Amino acid sequence: MDNRAGIFVKPGKSFQFFLITFIILIFFAIGFCFADEIQANGSIGPDDIIGPDDSSGYYIDSFPMIIERPGTYYLKPSETAEESGIKILHSDIILDGLGETLNGNMSPGSVGIYINVPKTQASNIIIKNLTIKDFETGTRIEGSTGVVLDDVHFISNTRSGLIIESSENIEIIECSSRNTKNDITGGYGIQVLDSEEVRVKNTLVTGNGNSGKASSGGVIVTNSTAVNIINSQVTSNPGFGIRAERGTRQFVLSQSEISANFGDGINIDSCPSPVIQNSEFNKNKESGIELNKVIQPVIKGNTITQNTLGISIADTEEMELSGNNLKNNRIGFDISASDIRYYNHHVTNSNTIDSRPLLYLNGAHGRKIGSGTNPSMIVLVNSSDISVSDLILSKNCAGIILVNCENITLSSISFMENGMGLRSELGTRNLVLTDLHAERNLLSGYYLSKTKNFTMSSIYGQESPSGIFIQNSADGTCKNLFMSHIYGVKSRLPSGITLCGCDNVTINNSEFSQCSYAGVLSDSKNLELTDNLLISNGFAGSVILSGPVKIHQNSFRNNDDTGLILKADQSFIVRNTFSDNEKQGLLILKGDENLFSENVFNDLNNCNIQDPLSYNTWNGTGVTSLGSFFTGGNYWGSPDGEGFSDLCDAGLDGYCTIPYIIRPGNIDYHPLSEKEKVRSLNMNTDLNQNGYEDLQDVVVYMNKLTSGDTSTLYDFSGDGRINLNDVVALFNIIIKNKNESSEDGEGQKS
Q1: Nearest to 168, CA basis, from 89, 115, 104
Q2: How far apart are CA 159 and CA 422, in angstroms?
């Protein structure tokens, strides 16, 4: 039929053929478009028409994009992904970034690439040649297996560069995670959570975390198994370098560089059987290697240099330590523990600290250790009959550590710039220390805990927050101690010697000076201080907070606050000198039934009793437990010569004729007078005990002084020291007494 003027014409076979051909061409054109490019805001699913040749791959250039079918995908230069980039929800995927960058806008909750493929599928996912930048999380692999990231770089993400969670068989090769940080969590370079068989190779992790967030940093592994970091660099992270925690098992770090991190280089907490080997730890702000509550760690063949702490071990069991080279660390090796089992380690002599061997002996007996061995540090555990001498030990947690040892002798040793010079604890007994020097140690020159029957003689310490710290120890004799320039914040009580919870300790012939808090600080019982000099300390010469104690023939002078602070009962404070203390000579915080006798007080404020119910005796009567017979009271003088005893009327016996009332319940009934000050102190001038005073007594005094036997000598000069001035003073006393005796005889004769 003619189609002109609205007339219908039936098409022929040729037209039908043309129409069918045209439709087929249209479908081919659509197919070729999909093969070339798939636009964003959609997904690639199993029912999508892809085109005639799937092997040619698919291009992605806008987002978000969900991939739900296998194939090869390419990233083209693209716009910014506002919230999320690419989700991979199927196995057998290759995503090749072609060197391009997947950019985010740092929006909260955004993820650059999210992979979640059920473990029942053989994932076989490869992501390569790609940079992922400015998301909250660069890439998150969750609940997946068989994923490889190759040449993938995470830059400037805010919470984490890469998170691997509840996944297994994940491999990270030639990747990097950089500059992940925020002010809330701090940020992480790589997180591995509840996963298995994760391998990180040839990867750089740098600039991650926040120095103000101690829990942030480079790589964190939590509750995961068989995580290996190999031939990688973890460096310059504002947080820690690597942290493995909460039950992570079979963690291995090998052939890697961990350097210049603000926290620890690597910190392993509560994990069994980690291995750290053949790696370098350099210039980390805290520890190079830090282990806490770890079981059977293996640390071998590492180089550890210029960290604050080289290796730090706490509450760790059965460690294997071999072939490590520690050098130029502030503290080379630090081992801290609270129980004997935490010292049961396998440490070989192949470990060196500043080119000298670390000597760690467990169960050794009958050994001599000296300059021939030349160790950098000594740890003795369950050992006995050991002598150590002629060494300089420096830059470790302690120069020497003794744990449950017996019959140990240490002599002629210097401890320099350690955490502690000497550390003795956990049942050590029969310890003899002679001629030891400790200087510039971070915590204490000498630390004794749970140590019994110890002797310290000729012990020197200076420039530490604590000279000697002894706690929970008993039966100690300390003589010729010299502690000076012990300094620190006063609230931490830096003192020459501190005794805490001890029993039966004697300190004599020692000097404590220029300590920021006190020369002697004690809350122990049965302490005896005899013939000591406690001068020029920042707060007090001595602070005694428990008793009973015996304080006999000591000198408390020139202290910035108080000579002696006492809180004790039933104690003896006899024949001491208190002078030129800034605030007061004696402060009694609380105390009853104490005896104060024959002391010389010469301060502007000699005595202050804070407790109104404190009752004490201030003059002796009869024989005391000190073995001396005396009836004398105390000398109450003043630096300006206007004190009570300076001006009182003296009787024939050398005592003031009226009592000195300190406060009710505290009265000195026989205060000493200026006239008989020296003789009234009952100082024995008949040293050779031949029944009278003569120049032979001066010779005896001189011989005892030069031989070092000064325990029975008196401070005749009153300067608080036993020295040549006392020889001269004794000579003058004897001459004076002879002259007075001669005058009395002439008077009687006339």
Answers
A1: 115
A2: 45
The b/e string for 316-354 (b: 16+ C-beta within 10 A; e otherwise) is bbebebeebbbbebebbbbbbbeeeebbbbebeeebbbb
Residues 6+ apart with CB under 8 A from 614: 588, 590, 591, 592, 665, 666
Cα torsion 109, 114, 117, 119: sign:
negative
pLDDT at 35: 36
**682/668 Cα distance (integer angstroms):** 17
Query: Which ranges of 648-694 does DSSP label H, i.e. alpha helix?
Result: 677-680
Query: 525-530 and 503-508 as β-strands: parallel, antiparallel, unpaired?
Result: parallel
CB–CB of 366/350 below 8 Å? no
Q: Residue 23: enclosing H or E segment and its boundaries? A: helix 13-36
Residue partners of 189: CB distance under 8 A and separation at least 6? 154, 160, 161, 162, 177, 178, 180, 205, 206, 208, 209, 217, 218, 219, 234, 237
Q: Any residues with CB less than 8 A from the CB of 512 and at least 6 apart, and which?
A: 467, 481, 483, 484, 495, 496, 497, 518, 519, 520, 532, 533, 534, 535, 537, 541
Give the tens place of pLDDT for each residue, 343-366.
999 999 999 999 999 999 999 999
* pLDDT tens by residue, 619-653: 876 433 444 444 679 999 999 889 999 999 988 87
Check if the beta carbon of residue 672 is closer than 8 Å to that of residue 653.
no
Query: What are the residue ranges spanned by the domains of the chain?
Result: 4-33, 688-750
Q: What is the distance between the alpha carbons of residues 535 and 585, in angstroms, rounded to a whole number?
A: 12
Distance from C-alpha of 213 to C-alpha of 205, rounded to nearest angstrom: 17
Residues 6+ apart with CB under 8 A from 722: 509, 531, 705, 710, 713, 715
Strands 101-103 and 468-471, sheet pairing? unpaired
Report the DSSP pairing between strands 280-282 and 303-305.
Answer: parallel
For the cut 80, the answer to whether the pLDDT of residue 23 exceeds it is no
Q: Are 41 and 64 in contact (CB under 8 A)?
A: yes
* Cα Rg of the chain (Å, integer): 41
Q: In terms of pLDDT, which residue wins out, 177 or 750?
A: 177
What is the torsional sign of CA 178, 105, 139, 251? positive
589: nearest Cα among 616, 568, 561: 568
Closest CA to 222 of 252, 191, 267: 191
Contacts of residue 104, Cβ cutoff 8 Å, sequence gap at least 6: 80, 81, 82, 85, 110, 112, 132, 133, 134, 135, 136, 157
Smallest CA-to-CA distance from 288 within 270, 311, 314 is with: 311
Residue 20 and residue 404: Cα distance in Å, rounded?
98
Contact (CB, 8 A) for 167 and 195: yes
Measured CA to CA, the distance from residue 354 to residue 352 in angstroms comes to 6
Strands 577-579 and 600-602: parallel
CA dist 539 and 400 (Å) reads: 31
Helix crossing, 724-749 with 695-707: angle to 10°?
170
Cα 460 to chain centroid distance, Å, stands at 23
Q: Which two tokens stand for residue 672?
A: 């000493």
